[in-house]
Design a protein that fits this description.
The complex is a heterodimer of chains A (114) and B (111).
Chain A lengths: L3 E4 L2 E4 L5 E7 L5 E8 L3 E10 L2 E4 L7 E6 L2 E6 L8 E8 L9 E2 L3 E5 L1
Parallel strand pairs in A: 2-11
Antiparallel strand pairs in A: 1-3, 3-8, 4-5, 4-9, 5-6, 7-8, 9-10, 9-11
Chain B lengths: L3 E3 L4 E4 L4 E7 L4 E9 L6 E7 L2 E5 L2 E6 L4 E6 L8 E9 L11 E6 L1
Parallel strand pairs in B: 2-10
Antiparallel strand pairs in B: 1-3, 3-8, 4-5, 4-9, 6-7, 7-8, 9-10
The chains are: A mainly beta (114), B mainly beta (111).
Chain lengths: 114, 111
């Protein structure tokens, strides 16, 4: 099984619908992140969480919300999806006790908003 | 000015070539310099990283950092078709909680 698991892997939805992307990890890392990837723009941070009680906005948090249900679970919600939220979304984890704090990514969730 | 600039490519080379991938950055506080490799339809995976200036070698891969010019390089020797992927540079500071990613360079190694 993958260390960082994202569901669903692919989702097509309509404008205005509520969407939740889920992420779970078995690495025991304390930090979790949500990124989106768009062609030519690279990876941009949406939200990050350093523990269950600590949630922080990233550079592009508008239109998104998150929930850290447990140390191993971090979900991303789009309350009312719009077409420019069509992107590839990645969950990542890291270990704050390791100096470099290297990110481990999931396989991604491809979201299409029509 | 973007924190990290990276030529998007695509870069196409024949098998066996030496490949040079590069990034520039603007924040002099960056201390860790990561390179991630992303295959099509997969998540990025850490290839290697260096701390502060200098070189680090791992098999066919060499990461190089020149902090005076804020320039990051990844060299691939004897490139293989299996190296075909997008390579992302990602510097960060030791006290920062945020990673800054380049947009990625797409590499195609032709057999």
């Amino acid at each position: 099984d993958a260390d960082v698991t994202q569901t669903p892997r692919n989702r097509i939805t309509k404008t205005g619908k509520r969407i939740m992307l889920e992420c779970s990890q078995t690495k025991g890392h304390d930090r979790m992140y949500w990124y989106r990837q768009d062609p030519g723009l690279g990876l941009r941070l949406i939200y990050y969480s350093f523990d269950v009680k600590d949630i922080n906005k990233g550079e592009i948090s508008d239109g998104y919300s998150v929930s850290r249900q447990a140390q191993a679970k971090f979900s991303l919600s789009l309350e009312s999806a719009i077409p420019n939220q069509t992107a590839l979304y990645f969950c990542a984890t890291s270990d704050s006790t390791a100096g470099a704090n290297v990110l481990t990514f999931g396989a991604g969730s491809r979201l299409t908003v029509l | 000015q973007k924190e990290v600039e990276q030529d998007p490519g695509p870069l196409s080379v024949p098998e066996g070539a030496i490949v040079s991938l590069n990034c520039t950055y603007s924040n002099s506080a960056f201390q860790y310099f990561m390179w991630y490799r992303q295959y099509s339809r997969k998540g990025p995976e850490l290839l290697m990283y260096t701390y502060s200036s200098g070189n680090k070698e791992d098999g066919r891969f060499t990461a190089q950092v020149d902090k005076s010019s804020k320039y990051i390089s990844l060299f691939i020797r004897d490139s293989q078709p299996s190296d075909s992927a997008t390579y992302l540079c990602a510097p960060k500071g030791s006290n920062f909680n945020k990673f800054y990613f380049g947009s990625g360079t797409k590499l195609n190694v032709k057999p």
